[in-house]
Amino acid sequence: MELTEQSFRDRLSYLSRAKIEKDEEWNDIVRRLKEKGVEYCIVLPLFEVVLGFDPLKDVKMEQGSDEYSNQRFDFVITPQENNHYSLIIEAKSLLETNLKKHEEQITKYMRDNQEYPWGILTNGFEWHFFLSKKYIEFKFNDDRPLDNYKSNKIFNVLSLSLSDENFIEIMQGMRKGDLGTFWHNMAKYTYATIAGGRGKRPNIHNNRSINEYISEQIKEAVEIKTGEYWDLIQSGKMNKGDKVFCKNNFIDLTFELDSGGRLILKPKRANTHDFAEFIKHCSNAVELLTAWQGSTNTFTDRSQVVKALTGGKKFTKTLKNMFPFTPSP
């Protein structure tokens, strides 16, 4: 049967329904497709029948790096309107449900090969889009570094999945003839967000609601959300990952700072050594401790932590003394 855009849409709909509703069918698909199946049943048809690329002329497969002999990219697509830069795509099997552990691979490729400032990492169901900071600096910041993002080399600016209602419509922003413009506008919007809104922000997609959806993801990815320790991070007196402790006679909390100076409480970093006292001073004690034990929580400042613990509305001097916060030396 000839594969058309409609039959390919039907294929993606079937995959999405199988994952959500039909465990046995989904598991069978996962076992049969593996990584090559994802490449040839999902990635390549998407770019051919939906986005209009000719796999014989427009797509390079298993392309080796000119710089590093040990690097090989699953797909390389170069836009017609600008052949200075290309998009690389790395595909994994549907079994690889945690794409985070594979991000280092594609971000390393993009750092090492500056002609590939745009990247997609996918397992066929989940799709993560990456932009090179170097490309953004060169295009929009006179090749000057974005100082507040020294530790960031590559930005993960957009994440989609087949279950997203507008997945195909979003991907159609990268049709043949529009690919370079799509990524250029994503980069320009990213820069405008980083720069605090200077300059007119471009439309990334011609559909208004989709454009807002993409824009919100970019803002979430790159806007620095600052916290109480921001000034210390900026001055170099503290660094991302430094510890801040809150300890008293009944509770022991260990936070890490993020790049914006916020307090990150990771799982199993909240403990009580006197439960009776904990219940006495902290409302919703059991539920709160259970929640903090099992998930990562982010706080702007100390007062947010203490208010959550006590249910109080003000971070009074008494509460400051009861819950002392001590940065690691």
Quick structural summary:
The chain is of the alpha+beta class and 329 residues long. Helix content is 42%, strand content 19%.
Write down how many β-strands occur, each being a DSSP E stretch of 2 or more residues: 12
Report the sheet-strand fraction: 15-25%
Please indicate the count of domains.
Answer: 2
Strand order of the largest sheet: 1-2-3-4-5-6
Number of helices: 12
* Rg: 24 Å
> How confident is the prediction overall: mean pLDDT?
90
- In this structure, how is the largest beta sheet organized? 6 strands, mixed
Helix content: 40-55%
What structural category do the secondary elements indicate?
alpha+beta
Spans of at least 5 consecutive residues whose pLDDT stays below 50 are: none
Q: What best-fitting shape do the alpha-carbon axes yield?
A: globular
The N- to C-terminal Cα distance equals 67 Å
Name the helix and strand elements from N-terminus to C-terminus, one letter apiece: HHEEEHEEHEHHHHEEEEHHEHHE
Keywords:
alpha+beta, six-stranded antiparallel beta sheet, 42% helix, 329 residues, 12 strands
